[in-house]
Amino acid sequence: MRVGWLISILFITCGYACADSQVSSNAIQFLTHNLKKSVYKDYSGAIRGIEHAGRRAFNLELVRAMSDLRKKPFNPVEVPFLRGVDLVKQGPNYAIFNISRNEERENQFKWVGPLQSDSVQFFKNTRYTKQLSSYLEFTEEVRVCVLRGSRHERILKAETPVLILVANCFLEA
Hints:
Strand order of the largest sheet: 4-1-5
Structural class: alpha/beta
Number of strands: 7
């Protein structure tokens, strides 16, 4: 049993140390998460955003271009989201991008940006005839699919009587 715990702790520590080893005393290590099919590795092994592959690819190339303009190195590391958040909270040598700025996170970080802003859009089935101009008009008969644990799930549960269908990932939604 103790051997299992020791191995688990070693793997967790190694994960943080591997990301840590890439940061010198004055360089910023850029972190990102959940890139999936929006990137590729170029001839030099650098992660590049695929053109027209969405927000994550665009933001990757935008931060790369800003780094190039400042003549700063840009070697982003893809990490799980929560690990990236933890690393940014640990010290000033980390920056994470492709993260939404919202009320819940506002005081957790020193924000630069946002790189872009977006809004939540609701689409309705054409067979549903009632006009809706705001999520506050949702009734019990409306069903909305959201990601499990997302702020959208919390907001809809708190403010509307809507029937929420919860998905574990975008592919289920």
